[in-house]
Write a structure and sequence with these properties.
This protein has 314 residues and is mainly alpha-helical. The chain has twelve helices and three strands, in the order H-H-H-E-E-E-H-H-H-H-H-H-H-H-H. It has helices at residues 12-21, 34-44, 49-52, 81-106, 118-136, 158-182, 193-209, 215-238, 250-258, 261-264, 267-283, 296-313, and strands at 58-62, 70-72, 76-80. The protein has a three-stranded mixed β-sheet with strand order 1-3-2.
């Protein structure tokens, strides 16, 4: 299965049937969501659909790889099953991580526990499986007894919530790649590479949140942005303390992306982002005292200082 056509060119029902008919038997369960994945950038902000038509590209899928691949060459979008697995597992685990953090804060614990609730432990274990696959670049079949994505989960169930968060995060990440195309960015490293990453991030966030006044819609879309940026953090932390030469330092990028006026207006989003950032720092054994602040900017400042110290101490 090499590519998917834009749903703007054919009826979505036909896209669904064609795509699912070509999914190889035994593929990762996230492939069952491919039609929704491809439609995600259009679906997340349908009021701006016309702006995306010139930027739509075919998708080339990379299967049976643990590698995280989510990029554009200008002509194609390249997405690996390792990337989709990691994003979905993060989306599934994120609410359990958030709730566990809230429980710990409520009773005054300094350490968040993920083994005091069966569903939470199961969700975190699944996410750790996806993290190991990407870290080791080793393909592994979906754990047999673990939760898995399905196209028709019960409304309001953890699987349904995970799908909604997943598609929102995927939309932001695909829109980031569209931002490179919209900005005519060269797809080789250049002296403007760092600035181009910021421009692509802004394009994605502005498309998702710009002009949105409904608080519930803004919250749902913001959750996806936080999950996507938490994954950006995770991927750079797993590469070690040396900053990328083609992307801005992760602390600078997260600071810009999560300090936007839309995100700063919601205490729920602040608490959610705080819990995910702390969890992902713990993946690489960084355990700072980053408590939720009344001013989210103070938390982000503490986060940036923590990462800077980690880089210097390596």
């Amino acid at each position: 299965m090499d590519s998917l056509k834009s749903p703007s060119l054919e009826p979505f029902e036909k896209i669904v049937a064609d795509v699912l008919a070509r999914v190889p038997e035994g593929s990762t369960p996230t492939f069952s969501l491919l039609p929704e994945i491809w439609a995600a950038p259009q679906a997340i902000a349908p009021e701006k659909l016309d702006l995306l038509v010139p930027l739509l590209r075919q998708v080339k899928l990379h299967s049976q790889t643990g590698e995280f691949r989510f990029s554009t060459s200008g002509d194609y979008l390249h997405i690996s099953d390792g990337a989709l697995n990691l994003i979905w597992c993060s989306s599934y685990a994120s609410w359990f991580i958030y709730k566990a953090s809230g429980r710990a804060q409520k009773i005054g614990l300094d350490v968040v526990r993920f083994d005091d609730d069966r569903e939470t432990e199961e969700a975190v274990n699944l996410y750790q499986w996806a993290i190991r696959c990407v870290r080791d670049k080793a393909y592994s079949s979906w754990p047999e007894s673990a939760p898995r994505p399905t196209r028709t989960p019960a409304y309001g169930s953890p699987l349904h919530v995970a799908n909604e968060v997943f598609l929102t995060a995927v939309a932001w990440m695909l829109l980031h790649e569209s931002g490179h195309i919209a900005g005519n960015h060269p797809f080789l490293r250049s002296s403007r590479s760092l600035q181009e990453e910021h421009e692509a991030d802004f394009f994605a966030t502005n498309h998702v949140l710009g002009g949105v006044t409904d608080e519930n819609v803004r919250f749902k879309r913001s959750v996806g942005i936080v999950v996507a940026n938490a994954l950006i953090l995770l991927l750079e932390l797993m590469n070690g303390p040396v900053s990328s030469r083609t992307h801005p330092p992760v602390e600078e990028r997260i600071s810009r992306n999560l300090r936007g006026p839309e995100l700063e207006s919601s205490n729920r989003i602040h608490a959610f982002a705080t819990a995910l950032i702390q969890f992902h720092l713990g993946v690489v054994s960084i355990f700072p005292q980053l408590h939720e602040r009344a001013d989210f900017g103070e938390f982000i400042d503490d986060f940036c200082l923590t990462i800077n110290r980690w880089r210097r101490s390596a």
